[in-house]
Structure formats: structure tokens, C-alpha cells
């Protein structure tokens, strides 16, 4: 499912082909069918998340789409980040209607952490590129009536902004 409404760029929630428990209609985390063909090392969704073959497989698919000028006619249509979900969307989890249409608002609520992580990664990555050579140092950014002091290690470890501290300096 593509996410991007009222956001700066598009992201995707990816589900893999997994087995379904026919009694409960819930999906398991065991890969099945063509999902097993991608990597012989991956038997579950967790394995696939860690497997570089799966990462490359999905990245290549999105790169192919993003570079296809007929399918992706502008930069606004390019998918920037993606996450593999634990299981498929299902009726029992109320993520689909009985006619198998996606309930976007329910999916957004159920997978809010995964969605937010993609947009948080985008905020940190540009800073991270410029600050890698500065590990262990402290960076001061002046603004208004104070300055923001950031430790470069915090940015690399993707710590949340509440771990940064504000150092007030008097204006002379």
C-alpha cells in the first residue's frame, strides 16, 4: 500500500506472500509460494526482513518503477522508502472489507509506527550524511535567543529529538 497523502513524499507498506490459517483466516509469518523463490534462506517474514536478497529484490522493484518514465511520470510519484509488514492485510484484522477492499484509515492506524519510521528516517538521513565524519564531537546551531547543541552520535543512532538539549545563551 502506498502512503503519501499530506506527506512530502511517497512510501510503501509491503506485504509478502504468507500462509493463511484456514480456521481463523489470519495470516501466519511463514512465507509460501513465490515468496520462497526470492531467497532459500528466508522461511519467515522476520527472516526476509534481515535477508539482503529480499532487500535487493524489493529495492530493485521500486527502482524499476521509479525509473520507468511511463509509469512514474514525475518525482512526486517516486517511492522513497518502504517497510515489510508482519503479515498480509486481512478481514479479521479489519484492514479489509468483506469485498477485499483496503481500509486505508485502519491500516494507517495499525501500522503507524512503521509509517512514521519511514518519514523519521528521511529527516535524519540528510543530516547523517554531513555529520558522519564528526562522530564524538558536539555541534552548535545558533538561533534566536539560544543555541541547539547536538551530539553527532545521537544523530547516527537515530535518537529522537527529545534526547537533544537546548542550551540557553544570553544575547549580549
Describe the model.
The chain has 2 domains: 2-127, no CATH class; 135-168, no CATH class. The N and C termini lie far apart (53 Å). Helices cover 34% and strands 22% of the residues. The chain is built from 6 helices and 8 strands; from the N terminus they run ββββαααβααββαβ. The strands form 3 sheets. A 3-stranded mixed sheet has the order 1-2-5, sandwiched between helices. A 3-stranded antiparallel sheet has the order 6-7-8. A two-stranded antiparallel sheet has the order 3-4. It is of the alpha+beta class. It is globular and about 45 Å long. The protein has helices at 35-38, 45-50, 52-67, 104-110, 112-131, 152-156, and strands at residues 2-3, 10-14, 18-20, 27-31, 79-84, 138-143, 146-151, 165-168.
Amino acid at each position: 500500500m502506498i502512503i503519501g497523502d499530506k506527506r512530502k513524499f511517497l512510501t510503501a507498506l509491503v506485504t509478502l506472500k504468507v500462509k493463511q490459517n484456514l480456521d481463523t483466516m489470519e495470516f501466519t509469518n511463514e512465507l509460501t509460494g513465490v515468496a520462497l523463490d526470492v531467497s532459500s534462506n528466508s522461511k519467515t517474514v522476520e527472516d526476509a526482513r534481515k535477508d539482503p536478497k529480499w532487500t535487493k529484490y524489493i529495492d530493485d522493484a521500486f527502482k524499476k518503477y521509479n525509473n520507468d518514465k511511463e509509469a512514474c511520470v514525475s518525482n512526486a510519484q517516486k517511492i522513497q522508502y518502504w517497510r515489510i509488514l508482519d503479515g498480509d492485510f486481512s478481514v479479521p484484522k479489519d484492514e479489509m472489507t468483506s469485498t477485499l477492499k483496503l481500509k486505508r484509515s485502519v491500516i494507517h492506524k495499525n501500522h503507524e509506527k512503521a509509517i512514521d519510521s519511514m518519514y523519521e528516517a528521511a529527516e535524519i538521513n540528510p543530516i547523517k550524511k554531513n555529520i558522519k565524519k564528526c562522530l564524538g564531537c558536539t555541534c552548535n546551531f545558533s538561533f534566536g535567543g539560544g543555541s541547539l547543541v547536538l551530539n553527532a552520535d545521537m544523530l547516527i543512532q537515530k535518537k529522537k529529538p527529545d534526547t537533544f538539549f537546548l542550551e540557553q545563551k544570553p544575547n549580549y
